Amino acid sequence: MALTKAMKQLLAVLGSKRQSKTSSLLPPLQPTLESQNLVPHPVRERETPSPDTKSAVPVPVNAPPKQVEEKKEFSEGGKGDSTIESLPTELQIAILEAVTEVRSLDALLRASPGCWRAFQGPRIKILKALLQHELRPSLLLEVRAVVEAKKIPRDGERDVSVRHFMTGYKESKASLRLASSGSASGEAPLSGVEIADEDVVEMANRELLIQSLTVDFCKDALRPVSASKRSAPIPRAHLEISEMEKHRIQRAMYRFEIFVALFADQDFGKLNRGQGVGEQEMADLYFGGEGMKAWEAEELACVRDWIVRVYRRVLQETRELIWEMNVESERQELRCFMQERKQLEARAEKQVLARHQYWEPEQCEALMMLGVPFLAKVLKAASTREKFELMKPHLIHSFMYAPTFLTKALEADPNSGPSLAHTQGHHRTPRVQFDGDIEDGPNAAWVRSKRSEREGQGQWFESRGEVWREWGYCLWDEERLKGWGCGEWNWRNGERRERGRWVCEEVVRRSGRVLPKWVWVVDGDE
Predict the structure, then answer these.
(1) Which residue intervals of 112-269 are DSSP H helices?
(2) What average pLDDT score do residues 92-119 get?
C-alpha cells in the first residue's frame, strides 16, 4: 500500500515539474570553466516554475534539497508513512531507475531529499542507463564528443591533438552510420557508443542544458510570421516538436559546442595572443572529407543564425551602456597625447562611431566563442544591466581583437576533396532525394531548396538562404512544413506562411463557368 501511494506521489511530482528547466543534476566530477555556471546541486523552489522559466539557485556543495512546506501536498491526511521519503532506500533507487527522461529525474531529485540521498551511490549507473535510453546512439556520440573535445590540452601539441580528435570523431560517425544501415530498425546498437564513467555526469548536465535551449530555439523559430501576431503568445501545441525535430536541433547544438571546444580562441582580447586557427583550416578540419554533409552543415548554420539573432537583440538592448563604456575606453587612450578638453571628447566619439559598422558582427562572433552555457546565462538574465555585466568582460574595444570563428569557417570551402569547378564539369551527380524524415538524411525543405542544384556541389550557408534559416527550414518534419504552406508544388523562395492549410473554393466567372481556386486558410481564422 505504501509503495502504491508513493508511486502516485511520484507521478504528481513529475507531472508538475516535468517541464521546468534546470541547469544541472550533479556537480561535475572535474569542474571546468564551462561547468562553473551550472548549479552544483538541485534545490526545491517555493513556487513551481512555469515551463518557460529556468531555475539556477546555487546551494552549498554538500547540502541536499531543503525540506519545504510543499511537502505537505504529497502526504495523504498528514500521515508521515505515505510519503516517498518513508520508502526504503532500495525502493527509492528502483523508482530512480524507472525514470526515462533527464528532466524528469532532475525534477524528482529537486522535489525529494530522500531520493537525492539515495541517488548518490548508484548515480553513475542510473545516469548512464538514462542517457542510453533517452538519446539515439548518434546523438549520444555527439554528447560524448563535446566532453572529449574539452579535454584536449591547450599546449604546443594542440594542433596535432585536434587533428587526431577529428580523425577519430569522423571514423566513429562513419562506423555508427554503417552499423545503423545494417540493422533492421535503422539505428545503431547502444553498445556501439561507450561512455566513460568519469564523463557521465558532465554529459547529463550538457543534455539538461541543451534541452532547455531547445525550447528557447523553438520559441524563436516557431513564432508567428506576420508582424501583427509577433507579440501574441505562441500556442503550446505549436511548440510541441517531434522526436526527429528534437534530434536535428540538438544534434546541431552539440556540433556547435564541439566547434567551440576545438577552435574558440581562449586568448581572445589579449594583446599578445597567438595567431590562432584560420578559417580555411577550421573548414578543412571540421567540414572537409566525410566530416559533415551539406545538409548537416546547414543545420549547424540555422543554430548559428539563431545565436547571432539572440546576441544582436541583447546588444541592441544594452547599446547605451556599451556606448558609454567604449567612449570611456577611447578617452583613456587619447589622454596619453591629448589634453582634457572638448576635442578629446569629440575624437573619442568619432573613433567609436568609425568602427561601429563592423563592430556588431565581430562582437557576435566573439560571444559565440563562449559556447551555449554563456548563451543560457544571457537568456536567463532578467534586466538590461545584468545582461551588460555578463557581456562586459567579453566586449571588443578594438579591431585588433576581432576573432575568426564559425561564420568565416562556414563561408570557406573545404578543400579536402576535388574543387567545385571540377565537380561541376566532370561529374553528373544524382538529384537530391527526400527519403522521409529519417535520421541520416535531409528534410523535405532542404531537398526542395536544392531542386535545381546538385548534391555534389556541397553548398551551404548561402546568402539567399538567410531568410530560410531564420525559421530553421532544414530542421522540421514534412508534416509541419505542409502546415506552413511549404508543399512541394507551391513552395517559393523560402516563404513560410502562418500555420494553416490550403482550401479549394469555387469561383464563378461572368460567363457562368465555375473554376476552382486554392486559398490558404490560417488556423483559427475560419
Answers:
(1) 113-119, 123-134, 137-149, 158-181, 200-221, 236-239, 243-263
(2) 93
